[in-house]
Specification:
289 residues; alpha/beta; 8-stranded mixed sheet; 18% strand
């Protein structure tokens, strides 16, 4: 038994909620646009579910989703990523996917040890990491401890570099009390008031009703961030209501001036359809190396 077994919260509020969320997960996976393998690997924090696709001879790229989400969020970009990489879309434990259902604290060794086990089980000597929001935090949390194992690091609106906008948490509480209309408004704000496909919005609502949401994410120290020696691409939306994008960009530029940093004026916290820009960065760094 893991020594930290008492230090977790359950992922789902109910078994019925879990089944409803995973039913939609399976329906999305049935429409996955490229051939894939569903992998389940063992780690010290339970089983981890991975959607693997792309030719096995290609270099590895690990995708880490945000909180209140799972690996099906990559369905729109997976075709492009899998042309150039062997892609591993990993369900983070403690989130509403198919990995372990224990939600461990973000402070402590839990999540970097978990990703270390994933790398070990998949026999990676080196891989590129792409993380969004909490997935960006998980990617940085591992990379500062194992920079030698990271080829390239792509961060989309990452948590943990700039401060969170705690005010939005308090603004969202009264919106949630308004029911469906309130949730719709909060979702639009998170998305920078850009349109959200109805299917995606309904899935967000389902997860919101049945998932034990995380709120506060630890911020990395200057010393930790300075350990990031690999090429880095940061994309952040200027209309992000959850994280201070300008402060995130400024801090990364100050500590790691060689990073590629792009603030997106029309975007909020949810960044999609940027696979072209990301692959351009990955290919450029690959050619330069």
């Amino acid at each position: 038994m893991n020594r930290n077994v008492k230090m977790y919260k359950p992922v789902f509020k109910s078994r019925d909620g879990r089944e409803a969320i995973l039913k939609v997960y399976d329906s999305l996976l049935a429409r996955w646009p490229v051939p894939y393998e569903a992998l389940n690997i063992s780690t010290r924090y339970g089983d981890t579910h991975i959607i693997a696709c792309g030719d096995s001879s290609l270099p590895p790229l690990v995708l880490l989703h945000g909180t209140s989400s799972n690996s099906t969020m990559w369905i729109g970009d997976i075709i492009e990523y899998s042309k150039s990489f062997r892609v591993y879309a990993v369900d983070i434990p403690g989130e509403p996917g198919k990995s372990g259902e224990r939600q461990y604290p973000l402070k402590g060794p839990f999540y970097h040890e978990w990703l270390e086990d994933v790398f070990s089980e998949l026999q990676f000597k080196k891989a590129s990491l792409l993380g969004i929001s909490l997935g960006g935090w998980v990617a940085v949390n591992y990379s500062v401890r194992h920079p030698e194992k990271i080829e390239r690091l792509v961060l989309l609106c990452p948590s943990g570099i700039g401060p969170q906008k705690i005010s939005f948490i308090f603004k969202s509480i009264p919106l949630m009390l308004l029911g469906e209309k309130g949730f719709d408004k909060a979702s639009r704000l998170v998305n920078g008031n850009n349109p959200i496909p109805e299917e995606a919005l309904q899935y967000m609502k389902l997860i919101g009703r049945n998932f034990n949401l995380r709120t506060i994410v630890p911020v990395f120290s200057d010393g930790e961030l300075k350990r990031l020696t690999m090429p880095i691409l940061l994309l952040a939306g200027e209309k992000d209501v959850l994280i201070h994008s300008e402060k995130t960009a400024a801090r990364l530029k100050k500590l790691l001036p060689k990073s590629t940093i792009e603030l997106l004026p029309k975007e909020g916290h949810i960044l999609i359809n940027y696979s072209g820009r990301i692959l351009e960065f990955l290919s450029q760094e690959k050619a330069d190396s």
